[in-house]
Amino acid sequence: MAAEILAAGGVQVDLYDGMPSVGRKFLLAGKGGLNLTHSEALDQFLPRYGSRRADVAQWLQAFDPQQLRDWVHGLGVSTFVGSSGRVFPTDMKAAPLLRAWLHRLRVSGVRFHMRHRLLGWADEGSTALRFASPLGERSVAADAVILALGGASWSRLGSDGAWVPWLQQRGADVAQLQPSNCGFDIGWSEHFRSRYAGEPLKSVALSVDGPVDGPDGTRFHQVGEFIATETGVEGSLVYAASSLLRDQITAQGSATLHVDLLPARSEEWVRDELARPRGPRSLSTHLKSRLGLHGVKAGLLYEVVPRDEMADPIRLAGFIKALPLRVVAARPIDEAISSAGGVRLESMDEALMLKASPGVFCAGEMLDWEAPTGGYLMTACLASGRVAAAGVLRWLAASHEGGRA
Fold first, then answer.
1. What confidence score (pLDDT) does residue 327 get?
2. What superfamily would CATH give domain 2-180+334-399?
3. In sequence order, what E strands does 231-355 have?
């Protein structure tokens, strides 16, 4: 995105990528359907960015969700809004969009240099960079540099966080990289793990208490689905709460989420159904016939609820409506969909240029912000690229005629 804005501004752009081809992470993001953005109104959209809401709001002034859709349409790719409000290309695929985008960039004069792995700075205090290339190590000088190096959640695609120490050497304040949109470990019994690992829990609600010192005792509460894994839980509903769970584990050693197995039913209704006589039928059969609870949902009850409380309709109804699951660790960062942490925005100006290293700009996931899945990551990454590119154009205009980035 930055390259497109710079090329349109008359700047010679050279794009370096450590991979054999451009956009591999973009293609991976679209493997199950490329979620471009979300259709919800901005007053609902912006809170997804948590403590960085105000900062991301500034980026979205340059490129909001509707402008992103318009940009996609301008590349000849139509979009649609799914039932969840998420926005996708009509064919759900990333490759046609990427091909059209790369064609536009090449026509505009952007030069691509593949298999160039960034090693750091070529000269102390300059914007020159060192790369490991197929022809050996080389140095590249530029009037301005935009770094879009990702976080640390996709090391096989180059996002390995190796940039942290040499960016810190330039005076950047970097928050520790942590997993985001990730799964969590619980430690199931062998019985539950062997029978239910990989099973989805659908039409449930997940709640998480806010931090002990959190504002207004805020809570996370959302309806959706997640998956029981070999070690714990993951999936869209868990990802949406991952930042809260991760931070609580860091502060307290563990975190507790509560699962409502029947969010469409009241606790009173559940209690009344459980209290109906079951005669010779087993409790498992009673749960299935009266409440529709069976499979992994019933298995989760037996995994968590003490046996003596399973026979008490009042206590069991409470568990069904708020089943506590204690998570003890986030999954490793390289398994996460995205990462939190990165270059703190306080060490950058509004154009995303490092205050301690003029002419060096940063964009995308390597910045210190995070968001849940649902198109929020893609939207903010693209918007930050446009902000950085606009900053480069102003920087070059103020210090040079023309320029190379």
1. 98
2. FAD/NAD(P)-binding domain (3.50.50.60)
3. 232-234, 255-260, 323-327, 329-330, 338-343
